[in-house]
Specification:
single chain; 6-stranded mixed sheet; two-stranded antiparallel ribbon; alpha/beta; 292 residues; globular; 9 helices; Rossmann fold
């Protein structure tokens, strides 16, 4: 049984994300993703003008003359949300915590999916896969997803994106629309990302807080790592320390940008002090232009 305060918060959040999905940009989502999948329907005899790449050589050899495969547009799609619940998302210095921002983005995407009669599921992860919610349809299912995001307490607080991508590639057999929602502060997931980008339609949504870009100059401070629990004393006014942090951020930005560019995966940046809808609308517009 949820405490009344938490129940009201989730209920209000549920209403907000449903409203935004229904009224603001559901059409953009449908035009960006609908019709991307094709499913096999039948084989028929080759006719002049057919694409020779569609010839089914096994069937053609069996009957002694060419047959082609016929595909129909796959109207019902499956959306899978990979949701990072590691400790670094329990941070926020502006309007909300990163985990709240993650929940808001996930809720909108889930409502967009069911509005167009798609299934939606989620894989909650930290340094391991914490929970798998199989894809289903319907508003009650989205309510369950949102409740899980707000209330689930992960067993671990560190991050392993490789583990969740390996799990996705192993468990989700059919082509799916996949959104990885994370602050992406991890490395070593190049191989499963390449495989996932070939098997699925993958987009990375990176959530962040502006304060992560640089240390505030507040002198000596005890800093606690939310993923390891380690507490260290640092001098936030140190130029050397601040430059090292900026260098680390630049290096990681380059690593992620190069990886996503090579694999052809779209990146959407959403910050705790910024808009949520506009970056997603830009993604949908970009995808729609590519399909023309």
């Amino acid at each position: 049984m949820l405490p009344d305060e938490l129940f009201k918060k989730i209920q209000g959040f549920h209403f907000k994300t449903r409203h935004m999905a229904n009224d603001l940009f559901a059409g953009q989502y449908e035009s960006a993703f609908k019709g991307r999948g094709m499913e096999f329907a039948e084989v028929r005899e080759y006719m002049p003008g057919d694409d020779i790449r569609a010839i089914d050589w096994n069937v053609s050899a069996r009957f002694g003359h060419p047959y082609v495969k016929v595909f129909h547009e796959e109207r019902e799609l499956t959306v899978v949300l990979l949701l990072d619940l590691s400790g670094s998302h329990l941070f926020g210095t502006r309007k909300k915590f990163k985990r709240e921002l993650l929940a808001e983005v996930a809720g909108m995407l889930a409502f967009l999916a069911i509005r167009t009669n798609d299934k939606v599921g989620a894989i909650l992860f930290s340094s391991q896969v914490e929970k798998y919610v199989p894809p289903k349809k319907g508003s009650p299912h989205v309510w369950r997803l949102i409740k899980e995001i707000f209330t689930y307490e992960p067993e671990n607080l560190s991050t392993d994106i490789k583990a969740v991508l390996d799990y996705l590639n192993r468990v989700v057999k059919r082509h799916a629309i996949v959104f990885l929602i994370s602050d992406c502060m991890d490395r070593g997931f190049e191989k499963p990302l390449r495989l996932a980008s070939k098997k699925h339609d993958l987009t990375v949504i990176r959530v962040s807080d502006p304060q992560e870009e640089d240390f505030p100059d507040l002198g000596l401070m005890n800093i606690r790592d939310p993923e390891t629990g380690q507490v260290i004393l640092i001098n936030t006014g140190s130029r050397v320390l601040r430059e090292r942090w900026r260098g680390y951020r630049r290096d990681h930005e380059g690593y992620l940008s190069d990886l996503l560019r090579i694999t052809g995966v779209d990146l959407v940046d959403i910050k705790t002090d910024g808009a949520v809808v506009e970056p997603l609308v830009r993604l949908f517009d970009k995808r729609r232009r590519r399909m023309v």
